[in-house]
Amino acid sequence: MHAKHYFLTLLLPLLFLGCQEESEAKKLSEVKEPNQLTILQKIKEKKRLDVIILNAPTVYYKGAYKELGFEYELISGYAKEIGVDLNLSVVYSTNEALEKSRLGDITVAGITLTKEREKRFKFGPKYDVIKERLVCHKLTYRSKNVKKDQKHLAGLKIVVPQNTTYVNTLEKLSQEIEGFEYETTLKHSSERLMAMVNERKIDCTVVDSNVFMINQNYYPEVNAYLTLSQSEYLAWVLRDGDDSLKNDLYRYFNDHQYEGKMNDLRDFYYSYLSLFDYYGTTTFYKHLKKRLPKYEKDFKKAAKERNFAWELLAAQSYQESHWNPKAKSHTGVRGMMMLTQTTAKQIGVKNRLDAKQSIFGGAKYLRMMEKRLPKEIEGKNRWAFTLAAYNVGMGHIHDAQKLARKLNKNPYIWSDLKEVLPLLSQKKYYKTLKHGYARGDEPVRYVNSILKFMNIIQKERSQ
Question: Among this protein's residues, is 320 annotated catalytic?
Answer without folding.
Answer: yes
